Amino acid sequence: MIYIVKEGDTIASIASLYNVSAQRLAYHNRLEESSQLVAGQAILILIPVLLHRVQSGETLTDIAAAHDTAVMEILRNNPYLAVDPVLYAGEELVIQYEDTKTDSIHINSYAYPDIRKELLLETLPCLTSLSIYSYRFTATGDLLSPADEPLIALAGDFNTNPILVLTPSLRSSHSNSGLISQLLNNREMRNRVIEHIQIIMEQRKYRGINLDFRYILTSDRDLFTDFIRNLQTCMHEQGYTISITLPFQTFPIEQDTFLSTIDYAGLSTCVDFMIFMSLDWESAEGPPMPVVPFNQITAVLEQIVTEVPREKIVMRFPNYAYDWPLPYSQGRTAATVIGNDEAASLAMRHRSPILYDTVAQAPFFEYSLRGVPHIVWFEDVRSMYAKLQLLADYNIQGISYWPLMYSFRPNWLLLNAMFHIL
């Protein structure tokens, strides 16, 4: 359930209205019980229907067995336990909330090695897979490795599949397309990269690979598909999954651009699933707009499902908000990237009412800092519910968040309330 704050509402008054714990309500929404809410703010309401009072000496395994549920489900319902698993006699745990889960979903998120450990621990129970960013291949066919071992170990603790992400080692799109072309056209380099991948995946206990190749030359279209097909054979022989991240856009594609080279239908036969990122949004350069517009997601899905089987489609959502200074000037002003929880805190700090774009299904607010007006577009549980329900309606494989570096606690609790997590 989602409640929209009215003037004068408090955490205590909302908790009393729904007969839930004010402490738990504040925690679920990453607030304090004393937080000064603002009009238009979306609050996630989870109503427990089954509680367990911890007895001295009990473990999570004992409690899960007593209620015929999984330890992981208890962690999803009580995410603080993933961070601090110590149980105290008399403590109340939520075994089940008043929700209806009808669909199963694959949930992936990308993370850099420097992610805050507490944030990672809290989120891992809600993830099917964790894509660790990234191994970067060089012109010699060698791989530059991230400090991935701590993340792999933590993922294993929560039965989350660690995924090796492979990217080119160069930064610019022009340089990347050249390096990818060199890989695709050089058999020795390809074999060397694949050999390194296989060794690392076995040694580090990865369970799959994701290729994030966004810039492919027109002349390399078929070579790219062949490379993915050959890599699929190698990965599947060893029991690994393979996925690719690809751009998609709803506006017309010019010929001889990297987007016009992508063989979506052909590639779909070579992978377990495809993660789609849209180039219609996700730009800090502006102009100011919703970060994940509902109407554009719908347009993207309408096109994708004509080329790719639904069970192989994963939509990538940005896990951040944009704070733009105004007035906007193309090429001169850019947004600051902040987290969605941070955006809500910013609105409360500046006492800015939160407005809602019903077409884009996106919240936003305005504030002023040192005389400079700002507009912030972000996501809340209201907007995420609309978009997650859309994905369920299209019956696609899942969702991927980029990146898992910003807190968005209500989102993970909402996901757990809506879906069975694979």
From the spread of the alpha carbons, the general shape counts as globular
Instruction: Name the structural class.
Output: alpha/beta
How can the largest sheet be summarized? Answer: 8 strands, parallel, barrel
Radius of gyration: 22 Å
Q: Can you walk through the features of this model?
A:
With 422 residues, this protein is α/β, with parallel strands linked by helices. It folds into two domains: 2-97, Membrane-bound Lytic Murein Transglycosylase D, Chain A (Roll); 103-421, TIM Barrel. Helix content is 35%, strand content 25%. It has helices at residues 11-18, 22-28, 60-66, 71-77, 80-83, 117-123, 149-157, 173-185, 187-204, 221-237, 264-268, 294-304, 340-349, 381-394, 409-418; strands spanning 2-4, 42-44, 48-53, 92-97, 103-111, 129-137, 143-144, 161-168, 208-212, 241-248, 273-278, 313-318, 321-325, 336-338, 355-357, 362-369, 372-377, 398-402, 419-421. The strands form four sheets. The protein has an eight-stranded parallel barrel, surrounded by five helices. A five-stranded antiparallel β-sheet has the order 14-13-17-16-15. Helix 14 (381-394) runs parallel beside helix 15. The longest helix has 18 residues, at 187-204. The protein is globular. The model is unreliable at 251-258 (pLDDT under 50).
Structural topology:
Elements: E1 2-4, H1 11-18, H2 22-28, E2 42-44, E3 48-53, H3 60-66, H4 71-77, H5 80-83, E4 92-97, E5 103-111, H6 117-123, E6 129-137, E7 143-144, H7 149-157, E8 161-168, H8 173-185, H9 187-204, E9 208-212, H10 221-237, E10 241-248, H11 264-268, E11 273-278, H12 294-304, E12 313-318, E13 321-325, E14 336-338, H13 340-349, E15 355-357, E16 362-369, E17 372-377, H14 381-394, E18 398-402, H15 409-418, E19 419-421
